[in-house]
Amino acid sequence: MPEPGLYVVATPIGNLEDISYRAVRVLAEVSCVAAEDTRRSRVLLNHYGIETRLLSLHEHNETDRIPGLVARVKDGEAVALISDAGTPLISDPGFQLVKAMGENRLPVFTIPGPSAVTAALSIGGLASDRFLFEGFLPAKSSARRKRLNAVAAENATLMFFESSHRIEASIADMLEIFGDGREAAICRELTKKFETVLRGSLAELQSRLESDPDQRKGEFVVLVAGNPESQNPIDGLALARALREHLSASQAAKIAAKVTGSSRREIYKALK
To answer: Which of 78, 75, 33 lies closest to 56 in space, CA to CA?
Structure first.
């Protein structure tokens, strides 16, 4: 048996072969597996001949399940947490359970692996050094547009999950708020048989969706390039000079460097 604790296990996002040897071993050896949808998870476990007991844990029953799972670990058991696909807690249930384990000073182990987030970043063709993950956008257009407006000025790559029911509406809202020339990528059905990646401006991607019904089917990760006009929104030295009216040169340089990412030493030298 593995060491007692909660094992947060990443599982395939599509192709069942995308799972680590360690994940298979842990799922086979723990006393139970808490799964978002036991029917979907049983397909995976059966594929690898794993007979471990499955226990449902989803957004509607997570609070009720926590005491029992905490008690199991306190009694020396090892239990696993998986979601329908990918890494648990990433737009999936499990946060409250992991938090409860920490509050009870019980060990939590990660079994890393597949994630639609890193999969899309690796092939989307947009900057991956900084990104802002927004998960699923609201279903209602007004709330969705409000969320998009809130991140329109971000200079990091933006990432959204989307479903087939709303992909056209979401792209249309992005086009209007971000501008039709903003570069983007639509990653569809990652690791599955009909995986596709569309790259281009939001206007071009909207056209592709309208002309090809197949590109509107499945599960999506949408990447949008950061706002190019926000790359250097604040000048470090200018900020330090403004702060210098109220602070010492050292303090002003320290704050300006932290806010803008500029060199503290260079700002300080320029202020003296």
So the answer is: 33
